[in-house]
Amino acid sequence: MNSLNLILCAAAIAALDICIFVLIITAYCEKRSSKRNWHELAHDMELAEQDIIYDLGCDEVLIGRHASADIRLPDLSVSRYHAMLTVSNGIWTIKDIGSKSGVFVNGNLIHETILHENDVIKLGNRRLIFRKRRQERVR
Amino acid sequence: MYANPVAYVFSCIFVIFAHSAMLVNIWFNGNFSEPRDIAILGAAVIILDIAYFVFILFFKQMSYVLDFLLVLILNMSVIFQSCFICKFNFKHYITCIVCLAASKCGYILCKNHKILQDKKKYIYGGIGFLLLLVLVVYFAKHDMWIRIGSFTLQPSEFIKPLFVLACATSIADQQKKHKILCFSVVYENIALFGLMAAICLVQVKSHDYGSLPTFISIYCVGFILRICYPKAKFSKKKLIAVIAVIVVFLIIGLKYAPEYVQHRLHVDIWSDKTGDGYQQSQALIAIANGGWFGVGPGKGFLSNIFAYDNDIVFATVSEEWGLLYALMMVLTIIIITAIPLFNPTRSYYHATMSSCICAAFIVQMALNIFGSCNLIPFTGVTIPFISSGGSSLLVSGFMTGMLMAGQSPVFNVANNPKSKSKPKKQEQAVPAWRWKE
């Protein structure tokens, strides 16, 4: 194998390396824009409980006492699998998935209902507020 | 439409740059008899690159990186396959275009799981029909392929994306537990287990043992994600139990495997160089012959061996382009499967689908590469995107489309006119603990 062939082979490998590197950077850029896009899709909502804020990061959010729940509320009045939040067409819906103490939205016992901004959700003894995501304060 | 236009422009340029570097290597270093063939190959590859970049502008997606990776690997495949025969491989080129079209079909079909969830019965029906077709083809012709002109189709390959869809659509029903005797069971899990058993039986009956590990990997990943739904910690006890079950099934499978499979497991390729160890021994010699930088495109001897372009394609690429380039090719496929790690999916459905597809791609690739290198018995499974074969490329493209769907999902409920006319009866909301008179 002469040196020209070796150089050409090495150049082809280097070109592929660079291309893969550029595509990885593109994937990283997409990660940020995708996160922004998700906030738009989910109408930038979050659940808040006093000082704790729960991010709604996917289209199905399970709330319960179990360690596997997306939003874990370690309280005996909350069932292991209590309620499910789902988003479709940009609208968030809460559904009772067989809880013992029921799901109350603004004081009304519900099985499934559409959530609006500043709705108060009561699961057992815990109260959560469904609100717009707030930007972190810059000091 | 484009969220990252600068990054996309650079991606397009560098994909064309990578292909151009390969073409220059062929021009100076290749074994093509006529320069016209290289010109045709170069024009075809660059035109396909540019045409696809223009084509994807019509699709409103959140992520395009998988499109760039797909066209990169497919055109690499066209270049490899053309070098093997020292002229432009038109058949493989057409198959790659069909693969790109299949990826877009996969994306459109799978981007909205809320629609797909209602069509679950069609998915199960499709798998049933394909299993029946596999059996009919095997018993009628003692063959695994349906031949249409110069194109061949392998029905069992098409079961893979449908099985992935079956695993993914079942994830949402994990909360629907039913009490049978003293066990609380999920009907979906029983249905999937039955489906897996039926697939295994049909594959064994039709002597297609190579695809079995791929199906088992899809099922295992789907099963693990189902028992971890939504994101439970996978306990050590469960892990040990799952591994133990797999090992038991593996031992039983090996013990009762047919004679030719058992022989393949124990064959010493160097003492049986002209028999069962022929392809593997030649593949190993070719990899060693190629070294780090290869002997040059089209100059290898392995392209005279049977199944050089699919079953031992890794060795053929290693010989002609060098081990480094072959490893970079593998890395490109690994990055395709790793994209969901860069940009996590936003639903359990898409996460399950992506994980199952990644498992299928990785297992297929491992079986081919390790089989070529004599680390495991030779199975004859193809490397996704690289090996020639209509069904394999079509299915790989469709499955990449499913990965794209996970990157650019849609969460809209279908406007079903039937559901408008008959509104669903509202269930009464009563807490279970409340005492009723």
UniProtKB/TrEMBL annotation, chain A:
Transmembrane segments: 6-29
Domain FHA residues, every copy: 61-110
Pfam families given in the database record: FHA (PF00498)
Classification via InterPro entries: Cell_Proc_Reg/RNA_Proc (IPR050923), FHA_dom (IPR000253), SMAD_FHA_dom_sf (IPR008984)
Keyword set includes Heme: no
Keyword terms, alphabetized: Membrane, Transmembrane, Transmembrane helix
Protein name: FHA domain-containing protein
Native organism taxonomy: Bacteria, Bacillati, Bacillota, Clostridia, Eubacteriales
From TrEMBL, chain B:
Enzyme class, spelled out: transferase
Entry EC no(s): 2.4.99.28
GO molecular function, one term: lipid-linked peptidoglycan transporter activity
Designated name of the protein: Probable peptidoglycan glycosyltransferase FtsW
Family membership: Belongs to the SEDS family. FtsW subfamily.
Keywords associated with the record: Cell cycle, Cell division, Cell shape, Glycosyltransferase, Membrane, Peptidoglycan synthesis, Transferase, Transmembrane, Transmembrane helix
GO biological process, one term: regulation of cell shape
Catalytic activity reported: [GlcNAc-(1->4)-Mur2Ac(oyl-L-Ala-gamma-D-Glu-L-Lys-D-Ala-D-Ala)](n)-di-trans,octa-cis-undecaprenyl diphosphate + beta-D-GlcNAc-(1->4)-Mur2Ac(oyl-L-Ala-gamma-D-Glu-L-Lys-D-Ala-D-Ala)-di-trans,octa-cis-undecaprenyl diphosphate = [GlcNAc-(1->4)-Mur2Ac(oyl-L-Ala-gamma-D-Glu-L-Lys-D-Ala-D-Ala)](n+1)-di-trans,octa-cis-undecaprenyl diphosphate + di-trans,octa-cis-undecaprenyl diphosphate + H(+)
Function statement: Peptidoglycan polymerase that is essential for cell division.
